[in-house]
Write a structure and sequence with these properties.
heterodimer, A: 269 residues, rod-shaped, B: 323 residues, seven-stranded antiparallel sheet, 35% strand
């Protein structure tokens, strides 16, 4: 089995807390044993032997407690280092070349921090997902279903009010409108460089055609698989309002989406 | 694949498969991510694929930067967030390569909830490198978490929260007329809108500067500070690069916000960002880490690490909220 060892600041904090608890328990047990009276109703030889054993156990517990004494603080410090390193690695994304201001971070920690930042600090729990081959098959089929996706897309236009981003200001909304108009008019030839440069200035943006195609496929795959059924269930009234042609298109899309589920492709997303 | 088929024009990392031609583009897939290579101009809508213009969607440009690819080629990278009217959210990497490069442009399209997991694999391919296989997907069921939102400075000042569970979110954010129950997929986009996330100048200084919160406040109070004024604000010797770089945020319009995420198991994560002449991450620094015992006192306040941040990194942090 192969795998990646990851470090999670939260887990380190938790571990530090747990170790503090273990430390307290061990120390308390050692003290209890030190004070234990084993003299009652025992023959002399056995009493001596039991007493020796108890002392030995108490000493072992104390040694164990002592060996853990520094660990909680060390783990907590590493957790903090991991957080700081995580901040740095967020900046550089795999091209970490950390330089730290000399003198302000203790030298031994600076070295440790740099080592942590050089590694992966992601700690997301993961399981195995669907194979890429399944998706490859699916997107070919999804492309053929694009017309239907466009049909229910028209329906969705009636219902998006509550899902519209309330924080997009006027310039951004204009950008979106331009993007849509540009795409439908087939005039999306303007380069991304110009588009993104304009975005920085708050000017309208024309989204490149390839982005439009990619989003079209992406949404088709997403919604043919998991979206259309939800859409119909949640917004039956709107579907009825639109008319039988579109309803028919949506119903076909649902059938095809269910067909995918029957073929065992349910784990793609 | 026939002998006349040129294959996918970018090297595919392990775990990706060539999906052939889709919608007039060359496609590859891995998990829930798609890679498409042009040509594109004038081909939108080919083979029945709906262009974005036919789907009610909001498109926001989040970031833009030049990226050095394999062979020294510099691509123009744009990161976009797309929210569909149906409540779905996609993150799109659009890379345009120099003239004569094959392909001329490429996109990676990823459901936003999976972007943080798949971004490295996608960008490796877009850079022309094989990279490594993407990590496997998280268990289905959606993120369960509480997010506290504090906008300390900016157009939508105030506090709010997002309660995420089972793919839905109850959001109560600054300037919203009422709490909303929305698909979790829209949350990253709404938060990005709330804090005005978009392309920003990149700071050239690497790493982390440990200073104090009062020093950061003094810096921001200086109108149009030059590097000497910056040094004065910090009251300490600053490397030249930092002094020059920190003169950029001084006196500029400032947004300042903090997101604090907590999951039921007890894990927490905080992202605090200063948006002033670029994005800067603020990270509390444990005084125990400082070189001298009295360093915290000499810093005249709570020690804090300031580090340049990119809009892409912020989106990387926000995107799992859509899961």
């Amino acid at each position: 089995m192969t795998g990646t060892i990851t470090m999670d600041p939260n887990e380190l904090d938790d571990a530090a807390g747990a170790l503090r608890g273990i430390f307290a328990t061990l120390e308390g047990s050692a003290q209890d044993l030190d004070g234990a009276d084993v003299a009652v109703e025992m023959p002399g030889a056995l009493r001596a032997r039991v007493g020796s054993e108890v002392s030995s156990i108490a000493a072992a517990l104390r040694r164990a407690a002592d060996s853990l004494a520094d660990l909680p603080g060390d783990l907590a410090r590493r957790a903090q280092l991991a957080r700081v390193a995580d901040t740095i690695s967020q900046v550089y994304r795999g091209e970490v070349a950390v330089s730290l201001p000399a003198g302000i971070i203790a030298a031994q920690y600076a070295k440790e921090l740099q080592q942590i930042a050089d590694g992966s600090l992601s700690a997301r729990a993961v399981t195995v997902g669907a194979s890429a081959g399944e998706l490859a098959t699916k997107i070919r089929v999804a492309a053929k279903l694009g017309g239907k996706a466009a049909a229910w897309g028209g329906v969705a236009a009636k219902t998006v009010g509550d899902l519209r981003n309330p924080y997009l200001d006027g310039s951004r909304r204009a950008a979106n409108a331009t993007a849509r108009a540009g795409m439908t008019a087939g005039t999306a030839a303007l380069g991304t460089a110009a588009a993104a440069g304009a975005a920085a200035l708050g000017a309208p943006v024309v989204i490149p055609a390839l982005v439009g195609v990619g989003v079209g496929i992406g949404l088709t795959v997403l919604d043919e698989k998991i979206g259309v059924t939800d859409f119909v269930a949640d917004r039956a009234d709107d579907v009825i309002d639109v008319g039988s042609d579109v309803v028919g298109g949506v119903a076909d899309g649902v059938g095809d989406a269910l067909g995918f589920a029957k073929k065992g492709l349910g784990g793609i997303f | 694949m026939g002998s006349s088929d040129p294959g996918f024009p970018l090297p595919l990392p392990p775990g990706w498969v060539d999906a052939g031609e889709v919608g007039g583009c060359r496609a590859a897939a891995s998990g829930s991510a798609l890679l498409l290579c042009g040509p594109a101009s004038g081909r939108a809508g080919a083979a029945g694929v709906p262009p974005v213009g036919d789907v009610p969607a909001e498109v926001v440009v989040l970031d833009r930067e030049p990226v050095r690819c394999r062979g020294g080629v510099v691509a123009d990278r744009t990161l976009l967030a797309v929210s569909a009217g149906s409540g779905r959210s996609l993150t799109v990497e659009h890379w345009r390569y120099p003239e004569g490069h094959e392909p001329a442009e490429a996109v990676a399209v990823v459901p936003t909830g999976a972007y943080a997991r798949l971004a490295a694999s996608c960008t490796a391919a877009l850079r022309g490198r094989r990279g490594s296989a993407p990590p496997p997907a998280a268990p289905a069921g959606g993120l369960r978490a509480s997010l506290r939102v504090s906008v300390l400075a900016g157009p939508y000042r105030g506090t709010g929260s997002c309660e995420l569970a089972g793919g839905r979110a109850r959001v109560e954010l600054p300037d919203l007329d009422r709490p909303r129950d929305v698909p979790a997929a829209v949350v990253p986009g709404w938060l990005a809108g709330l804090v005005g996330l978009g392309p920003r100048p990149r700071a050239a200084v690497p790493g982390l500067l440990v200073t104090s919160r009062p020093a950061v406040k003094r810096l921001l109070a200086h109108p149009g500070a030059d590097p000497d004024q910056v040094r004065a604000a910090f009251g300490a010797a600053l490397p030249d690069g930092w002094a020059r770089q920190l003169s950029a945020p001084a006196g500029t319009p400032v947004a300042h916000w903090r997101l604090e995420l907590a999951v039921p198991a007890g894990g927490t994560a905080t992202l605090e960002v200063l948006d002033a002449g670029g994005l800067w991450s603020l990270t509390p620094v444990d005084p125990e880490l400082l070189a001298a015992e009295d360093a915290a006192d000499r810093l005249d306040g709570e020690p804090v690490g300031i580090s340049p941040l990119t809009p892409s990194a912020v989106w990387h942090w926000l995107s799992p909220l859509a899961a």
